[in-house]
Amino acid sequence: MNMNSKKAVLIFATRNEHKLHEVHRIFQNIIQIKSLHDCGFNEVLPETHEKLEENAEEKLMALADALHQNCFAEDTGLEIKALNGKPGVYSARYAEKNQSPLDNLYLVLEQMKDIKQRNARFRTVIALYLNEKVYKFEGIINGRITDKPRGNKGFGYDPVFVPDGYNETFAELDQDIKSTISHRAIAFNKMLTFLREEL
Ligand code: ITT
After folding, report:
1. Residue 1 covered by a domain
2. 174 is a catalytic site residue
3. What tens digit of pLDDT does each residue of 140-168 get?
4. CATH number assigned to the domain comprising residue 114
5. Cα(74) to centroid of ligand 1, in Å?
6. This prediction's pTM
7. Is 168 exposed, middle or buried (0-12, 13-18, 19+ CB in 10 A)?
8. How much distance in Å is there from the Cα of 55 to the middle of ligand 1?
9. Is 159 a domain residue?
10. Which of 39, 45, 80, 93 is most buried, by CB atoms within 10 Å?
């Protein structure tokens, strides 16, 4: 794959439209990202492990084994210190039966009620399948959990997470700022640096 050519194409193994949107924003026109929809891939992406690293690779290989094309997947978790790193790898399904992002967010706020230690971080692990080899990249952003949801941008836990160095939540900040400083941006910029050296 030639990075200078418009033909540099990677498929993103995600069902999350928000992630797809953010990654398009991070990569701009540097790499052409194809969605699962673009490839007509309709199978479920399995996530059965207890580590972000393993889930990212599991999602990746479900796609790579089916299509045999260069692709990547990522798994992200909100890790809250006072909750011993939870919701972490369970971020998407934290509220169990009710699994909507809003239910997950309110469960976190409920569990954090009256807790003074509000440190948290978002962590993203990307798994990349490139020419039959797998590579991983991690991105972390530290911050704190608010008392109430604030803002309507972004997605998931963004309304309750204030990154270090800011007073606004990720859901209040301009999305260009999130796309520059976030866990996802850090991990994807590492992947981009690797691709520039590798290709
Ligand atoms: P895919 O597995 O299809 O990529 P998903 O939504 O299941 O999509 P994850 O398991 O990686 O993705 O994400 C867990 C949840 O964490 C996700 O559903 C969001 O609610 C939340 N999340 C992930 N990235 C986030 C971000 O940048 N800001 C806020 N919440 C985020």
Report:
1. no
2. no
3. 999 999 999 999 999 999 999 999 999 99
4. 3.90.950.10
5. 9
6. 0.95
7. middle
8. 12
9. yes
10. 80
